[in-house]
Write a structure and sequence with these properties.
The protein is mostly beta strands. It has two domains: about 120 residues, Sandwich (Jelly Rolls); about 70 residues, Phage tail protein beta-alpha-beta fold (3-Layer(bab) Sandwich). It has two helices and 18 strands. The strands form three sheets. Strands 1, 2, 3, 4, 5, 6, 7, 8, 9, 10, 11, 12 and 13 form a 13-stranded mixed β-sheet that branches.
């Protein structure tokens, strides 16, 4: 008999989930994870999570996030579904990423990342430093030419502040590292680094042209 699906939610703090096979998931703040299947092999993620998956040839783990399927072969990797994009970064082992809109699946190995934009149908694969993968767990966020809308979505999730972006700035990109222990300071740092304006206060901000 297949057990009923389990639903896990994280509030303002991350949440660690221990699976039956010894694998571990660290669910990011303001994220949800549904786990289904006889061997907990099917998952649906909304938000972000770090996965440390035990290798088991008899168990093919699949994670769905915003229409993207990530198949794991036993590895450590980070998944973020926010700001209209899905990002997958592999710290160890390998994963396969696929979507109905992709021409073909993409296999990622250690030190590689994929950023997928469902609206544009584009998938960009880049190298990534292992120290930067899943670094939200230690209070930092690093970006490499990330759309400003995605940066704002990450700050809203991890820094505990609400951040929106003026429509005229949606195509702007940001590269750099933000410390997120103080969400208000992180938003101010972002706008100063990019030479942009900031409206609002007390945890509710809008990034605007200066």
């Amino acid at each position: 008999m297949t057990p009923s699906p389990q639903r896990f939610e994280a509030g303002a703090q991350s949440r660690t989930i221990a699976l039956d096979d010894g694998s571990t998931v660290i669910l990011a703040p303001r994220s949800t994870l549904e786990v289904a299947g006889r061997h907990q092999e099917r998952m649906a993620l909304s938000g972000g999570a770090w996965f440390d998956v035990r290798h088991d040839p008899s168990r093919a783990l699949t994670i769905e996030a915003d229409g993207v399927q990530i198949s794991d072969i036993g590895t450590q990797f980070d998944v973020q579904a926010a700001g209209g994009q899905v990002r997958v970064e592999v710290a160890e082992g390998k994963v396969e990423v696929r979507s109905d809109a992709m021409a073909q699946p993409v296999r990622l190995t250690q030190g590689r990342s994929l950023s997928y934009d469902p609206k544009q149908g584009t998938a960009l694969v880049r190298p990534v430093a292992n120290n930067d993968i899943g670094e939200w767990r230690s209070g930092r966020l690093s970006f490499d030419m990330a759309p400003l809308t995605l940066v704002a979505a990450d700050l809203s999730r991890y820094a505990g502040v609400e951040v929106t972006v003026d429509e005229s700035l949606r195509s702007r990109a940001f590269s750099g590292t933000l410390v997120i222990n103080n969400g208000d300071a992180a938003v101010r740092d972002l706008t100063q680094l990019m030479g942009l304006g900031l409206a609002g206060s007390a945890g509710d901000y809008r990034i605007e042209p200066r």
